[in-house]
Amino acid sequence: MNKATTGLESPNLSKGYAAVFATVVIWSVPSLFQFYLNRYYDPWAQNFYRYSVACLAIAPFVVYRMRRGGSKIDFRAVGVCFIPCLPNVVHQITQVVALFYMGPGVYAIFIRSSVIFTALLALAFFPEERRIIRQWQFQAGTGLGLIGAFGVIWFQSSGQDRHIALPGLVIAFTASFCWALYGVLVKRPSAQLGSIRSFGLISLITSALLLPLTFAFGKIATPLHVDAQVNLILIVSAVSCITLAHVLYYVAIHQIGVALAQTLQLICPLGALGLSAIIFHERLTHAQLLSAAILLIGAFLAMRTKPIATAETAENL
Q: For 40-61, how does the pLDDT look when each residue is reduced to its tens digit (9 = 90+)?
């Protein structure tokens, strides 16, 4: 991996495919972990402890990179990383709350709409990317993606109701929009510090921001009052879905390219749906399945115009 990152050897396709399919497997399960942990952890405590564990897990990689030279972590780096942490905190909380209104499989499909929101936000933040709005793939993909995203959650049954409750709809769209905003804003620190150092600092800042919120609105002592198995699942979810997947995804990007690495991530909802059906007995209506297909087709078309690496750089963190 070290030689590859310095560009001293040609891309290793087998290594790249192994890395990308590992991330597909890993990123098929975050919403299932969160859905399960909702039974024991409130949204504030769950996110604080998951991010804290992820921060500790990435720390050795950060130290290793710093010893090899490159950009140092100083107050300027903290300032650059602080801004994207704000929408990230909102996303982390709202995505967990959204799982009180919908199943993990539905959410895994819906969050793909963040690709559409990221493309739209990129047009506002990066003038050089505004030319893509004239491409029919972008226009068609955006329209299909938003229609499909709305349909996936609108046709989610909520008890005796025909459709999902309005608060759930708003929370889900907020989660997706904030994830897209985070993806756009993280472009600068990732470019300046590198993926490992930027994520190490972002995970630290995010944990620090979640700590007072957990004291104010959550239950900071939750780990002391749940079974060891529950805490173990939280640790596994943080290390695998946040830290390990983050590192593997950047290996995949380097070896096989952003476009292919991103496209293969569209397989993730299929794994999430299958596992959720087996574990939680989640079932989608015909209208939801049709909406899911429309959403994934739209996301695929939007990504074909100009792959945006920031849309998935730290998926499901």
A: 999 999 999 999 999 999 998 8
CB 13 within 8 A of CB 260: no
DSSP string, 105-117: HHHHHHGGGHHHH
Give CA–CA dist 131/123, Å, rounded: 8
* 216-262 pLDDT tens trace: 999 999 999 999 999 999 999 999 988 887 777 767 766 766 555 66
Alpha-carbon distance of 152 to 156, in angstroms, equals 7
SS3 state of residue 146: helix
30 contacts: CB under 8 Å, gap ≥ 6: 108, 237, 241, 316
Closest CA to 248 of 30, 16, 3, 58: 16
How many other CB atoms are found less than 10 A from the CB of residue 150?
18
pTM, full prediction: 0.78
